[in-house]
Amino acid sequence: MKLHGATALVTGANRGLGHHLAQELLRRGAKVYATARRPELVDLPGAEVLRLDITDQASVDAAASAATDVDVLINNAAFTAGGNLTTGDLGAIREVMDSNYYGTLAMIRAFAPILARNGGGAILNVLSAAAWTTVDGNTSYAAAKSAQWGLTNGVRVELAPQGTLVAALVPGLIATETLRDYVRAAGLELPEHVMIDPADLARVALDGLEAGDIEILDRIGADAKATLSGAPQAFDLAALAG
Ligand SMILES: NC(=O)c1ccc[n+]([C@@H]2O[C@H](COP(=O)([O-])OP(=O)(O)OC[C@H]3O[C@@H](n4cnc5c(N)ncnc54)[C@H](OP(=O)(O)O)[C@@H]3O)[C@@H](O)[C@H]2O)c1
């Protein structure tokens, strides 16, 4: 689908990958609703800024009432620090599932009729290579991303009749502050070349969407997918740190 002249809504647009996705959409000539829990933190001249917490149904409904012209929905927002499943804080584990799975689902349920009215359009869900491996230290996040992958595949089938393209972006390591903090806390140091720059990834993601791809992978994402026919394995962050 062409993004020039499209109307896109991006969740979690105040920082990290979401900021770069919104910026790249603006560069390509799309109208952009840049949404965030704290809209005052959004720095994207040219975008329409909306307050949105994807885990709050009233907030999701308000966004859907305000942005009735959307034909591209980008579900990027996520809480990612759930920790391990057997030892992590259960509240944090639930929050990871709430944002990645139920929050994404709430957005899709609210916007699917809007996309239908606007010609079908597209949904891009931001997953992770963690969906296809796991990450010791953050297994709850990997499990939530696996659930989000299943959700993405299910919604694709359900929304095909209305002409909505449902795509997944499956990156490995994005050089955002959140990843840098996580790696630092693990006592590791990653060489820059194993991470993808969020601005570069935003371009890859939107090129894929414009080409009609249903899975858009970076190198680590592609490697993770290739492991799926073998025995399950954990992602080895320490090995990448060298
Ligand atoms: N960084 C990586 O290495 C990596 C790798 C693979 C996939 N990903 C995925 O890529 C996406 C972006 O990652 P990132 O590194 O850019 O993340 P980030 O910098 O931590 O940003 C997360 C964004 O999500 C927002 N958010 C969290 N919970 C929310 C909620 N309930 N409602 C609305 N917004 C919410 C945050 O808002 P606040 O500022 O208010 O907290 C923030 O804007 C995520 O889906 C992540 O799982 C990341």
UniProtKB/TrEMBL annotation:
Keywords: Oxidoreductase. The keyword Zinc does not apply. It comes from the Bacteria. The keyword tRNA-binding does not apply. Signal peptide: none annotated. It holds the Pfam family adh_short. GO terms for molecular function: oxidoreductase activity. Belongs to the short-chain dehydrogenases/reductases (SDR) family. This is Short-chain dehydrogenase. It comes from Amycolatopsis rifamycinica.
